[in-house]
Amino acid sequence: MDLTASLVAARAREYREREPLYAVEAEQLETLPAAFAAGEYGRRDAVWVVRWYYRRFLGDYPDADRRAAEDRFRDNDFDAVRDAIADAVAARDAVAAVDALTHLEAVDVPVAAAFCMFLDPDEYVAVGPREWATLREAGELERPYPDPPSVADYERYRERCRTLAERFDCDLWTLYRALWRLAD
Fold first, then answer.
1. How far apart are CA 157 and CA 163, in angstroms?
2. Would the CA dihedral through 57, 29, 125, 136 be positive or negative?
């Protein structure tokens, strides 16, 4: 597959038209970054990000595993969650942001990347096996999806996405939506 600007734009539009979570994702991308930056959010907002990461697979992720991760995240002391999010917001780079978040229960690198996307969608993009596989199929990543990915793996993926977004003159959220749809 050859990734082009027109293919990315078409698949991102298709995502908007067909993915059932699009409307709530778009709304959260408008509100959560400012809420997280100002510290004006509640536990449910933080839990929403974890729920979103797993539920975006629309049943393809094992339900028992998803519920266990969500429950483990809810077990985090909310002050610890607030501290981790504040540290991620203040981080000077992706490694520090992801590292701050992975200290929380149930937050591995992919979930931390999802948090980062909702902290600053201009700088971060979610990662998972679908998006990674799409980039690999397009010849943009050499290795198969590392399960689980390390912070260094995420940084390589993120930099590749940033380069592609610049090449296609789109934002990371548009590129993410296209990668998700191209995985079908």
1. 10
2. positive
Asked if 95 contacts 155 with a C-beta cutoff of 8 angstroms, the reply is yes
pLDDT for 57 equals 83
Cα 16 to the center of its chain, rounded Å: 17
Helix, strand, coil percentages (3-state) for the chain, rounded to 5, are 70, 0, 30
What's the half-sphere exposure (Cβ side, CA atoms, 13 Å) at 120?
Answer: 17
Q: Which two tokens stand for residue 64?
A: 């028992």
Q: Please state whether the predicted TM-score (pTM) of the whole model is above 0.70.
A: yes
107 close to 118: Cβ distance less than 8 angstroms? no
Which tokens sit at 38? Answer: 């100002």
Locus of tokens 């991308």: 29
Residue 138 to residue 10: CA distance in whole angstroms: 16
Q: Would you give the distance in Å from CA 181 to the centre of its chain?
A: 15
**Residue 135 exposed, middle or buried by CB count within 10 Å (0-12, 13-18, 19+):** buried
Q: Write the pLDDT tens digit of every residue in 19-58.
A: 999 999 999 999 999 999 999 999 999 999 999 999 998 8
- Report the distance separating Cα 162 and Cα 147, nearest Å: 22
Contact assessment for residue 124 and residue 158, using Cβ atoms and an 8 Å cutoff = yes
Q: CB-based burial of residue 115 (10 Å sphere; 0-12 exposed, 13-18 middle, 19+ buried)? A: buried
How long, in residues, is the chain? 184
